[in-house]
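Anyone have tokens for site-specific DNA-methyltransferase (adenine-specific)? Sequence:
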Amino acid sequence: MVQLVVELIDPQPGHSVYDPTCGSGGMLVESAHHVSRFPNGTLMGKPNVLLYGQEKNLGTWAIAKLNLYLHNMHAAIERGDTLVEPKHLDGDFLKTFDRVIANPPFSAKSWWTPLELSNENEQDGNKKPKAPNYKQVSDPFGRLSYGIPPRSYADFAFAQHMLASLKADGRMGIILPHGVLFRSGEEGKIREGLLFGTDASSGNQQGDLIEAIIGLPSALFYNTGIPACVLVLNKNKPHDLKGKVIIIDASRDYLEGKAQNSLRSEDISRIVSTHKAAFENQTEVDHYCRVVQLEEIRSNDGNLNVARYIDNGKTEEAVDVAATLEQLFALSAEEAQIDARLNVYLVELGLLETEV
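Reply: yep, here.
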């Protein structure tokens, strides 16, 4: 999975790469390895790339720093909750990067800031505390410009943080649960904003940001069996791809395991090469990849469920109704004969009385 997302966003020598939920640093390490394979990909014996990350968990943060050190890579790894307190700043603003990459926790709950939570839980005499109202969340960095995600689904909160951390010509890749492609409500509004932009009441935010959607198999992660997807967002899509979204259905290509499925090297290569051909030449592959116009997506109310756009190629077997009914009648007659013979045996054994 890490290799797949890195190859999709394709960081280049001299780029800055940021992972806001970096875990043990695997995506940053893979990004550096990717860059080092290019001409001018190394500088003074180290990958020619600037690495940045943030991790909430103390132990995991320490492992990330050690991981980068053992790989002889310098990285600025900060500790803290990215949504509550982003640490990579330029003054009072978010620092921006050439590439942003992440595999955030799926559908994290209660993601709004502790400060907002404490403000909303004010006591009123002896009454119970007020329930927190996540829709009143205010963000000093303006990251939630496309909408405030539901309190139980932080997926688009992380995605909007990443988008706000992206340079004007940058590209980002994020692994999310498949539900972000079709859930309605506030998430539907956010998705439509990313696709079609927003009106003046929502700040006239830029649309046409989704470059690609890759539908993945289920059970790729230990902690969940639900299918995932990769969203690639691009603030500077090439002219021939404007007004279009690459959609790839890679859900059927994987190695099945007892507890967890995995992508094989050939599965990753197929996704990456198909995406590259679609990105550069709008090439499509039957039952696997389409380059879909935004008008078609709008006609589906912004629903990006992969199955709406790609036929998996499976054809239903035609049923001969007459032959099936004939077979059922024959089986029914055979069953009656068996029951009659069984009753004879039961009578002979004295287990069934004969009717007078």
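The mean pLDDT is 89.
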